[in-house]
Amino acid sequence: MLSRFSALDGLLRHTQPLWQVQPFHHLRLPWWQTHPALCEALAALALPDLQALEQDEAARAALLWPLVPEASELAALCHLPRLPSTLPPPAPAHVPGRKWSQIWAFAQQLGLAAGRGPGHLLEWCAGKGHLGRLLARQGHSVVSLEWDAELCLAARQLSTGLPQQAVQQDVMAAEATGWLAGARQAVALHACGDLHRHLIRQGAAQQVASLSLAPCCYHKHAHEHYQPLSQAAQASGLPLNRRLLQLPLQETVTAGARVRRLRWQELSWRLTFDALQRDLRGENSYLPLPSIAKGLLVGDLTAFIDWAAQTKGLILPAPLDLAPYQQQAQERLAQVLRMELVLGLFRRPVELWLVLDYALYLEEQGYVVSLGEFCERPLTPRNLLLQAHRRADSEAGGR
Ligand SMILES: C[S@@+](CC[C@H](N)C(=O)[O-])C[C@H]1O[C@@H](n2cnc3c(N)ncnc32)[C@H](O)[C@@H]1O
C-alpha cells in the first residue's frame, strides 16, 4: 500500500499543473508552455471528435499517453484486482436493478458465514437498507443506520420478519459510536465523504473487527482543505481542496446518450452565459454559477440566461441577441472538452490516492487492508472496495 501510495503521490505532485486547472476559467489551453505537443494534438480535435472520445477509453489512451509521459504509469498504479462475483438473481421488488447488482456484488465480498460470531453487522448510511436486507436474508443480525425518517420507515416496512433493525440515526452523532462498539463488522456502500471517513476513524477507535466500504462523493461535508488521515498522506502535502475532491466524480462512464447530450447542452448554455457576462460586466473573468435545477435544462436557452442573470444580479439589455455568444460558446465547449480529456487521466489516480490514504490509516491502526474493484465500472464508477480486518483477528484466522 505504502509503495503504491508513494509512487502515485509523487506522480500526482509532479503533474499538478495538468489536473488542477478549472476549464471554465481558461479561454485557451493553459499548457502551451509546458506541453506544446499535447496542446497541438488537442487543438487539432474538433467538437465531434472530442465528443466521440468521451466514450472511447482506448482511443483516449492512444492519443494522450504518448503526450503525457506520466499517464501510463498512473494507469498501471490504478490497476486493482477485479473481485470475482456471480451474476445476481432477479432484483427483488422495490430495489432498482442497477442498485441490486451493486449490492449483490458488494455482499459477495464480505466473507461472512451465516450467524457467525457475537455482535451485529452495522450498515452505515443505509438508505432503504437494501444491502442490510440482503445480509439479513442470509441469516445475519443487521442494524441499519440512516438519518432520513422516510428511508428508515421504508427500510422497516421492507424488513418485516427479518433480523434487520432500521435505526434513525445521524452517523456523525456521538450515539452512533455505541452502535459501532457492539458491531462485529461495519459495511458502508456509498456513504459520502466525511460520513465514510468518520466510519473509518470511529470504527478503528472502537476496534471493530472488520470494516468494508465502497466510498463515494469524497467532497461531501469535507473541510475546504482535505485533512488526510494517514501519516504518509499528511507528510505528502498534496494540496487537495473540496473542488479537487470532486474530480473523481466528474466522469461519464455510466451516462447514457441522453444524459451526455444534456451535459453538453448545459456546458454550452453556461458558456453562452459566460461570454455574455464578460461582455456585460466589461470584465474578462469567469463568474461561477450554482448548480441548476434539471427542469431548467429541458426548457430553452433564454429561460436559462434569465435565471443566470438574475442569480448574478445582472440586468440584461433588451432586445438581446444571443447568437454571437452562442457562437463563442461552441468554440469554448470544444476547448473545455479538450481540457477535460486531460483531467480524465487523473480522476482515478486522485480517487485512489484518497482511498490509499484511508487504507494506510487503517494499517496504522492495526488492520490488515485489501483493495479491489467489486464490480465493473459501468455498473458504478464508485466500485472501489476497501476491506480491513483487525490484525489480531486476522492472524487468529478469523474475520
Ligand atoms: C448515497 S446514499 C447510499 C445509500 C445506500 N447505502 C445505498 O447504497 O443505496 C447515502 C445515504 O446516507 C444518508 N445519510 C446522509 N447523511 C447521513 C448522516 N449524517 N447520518 C446517517 N445517514 C446519512 C442519506 O440519507 C443516504 O440515504
TrEMBL record:
One of its GO terms (molecular function) is methyltransferase activity. One of its GO terms (biological process) is methylation. Keywords: Methyltransferase, Transferase. Residues 99-220 form the Methyltransferase domain. InterPro entries: Methyltranfer_dom, SAM-dependent_MTases_sf. It holds the Pfam family Methyltransf_32. This is Methyltransferase. It comes from Pseudaeromonas paramecii.
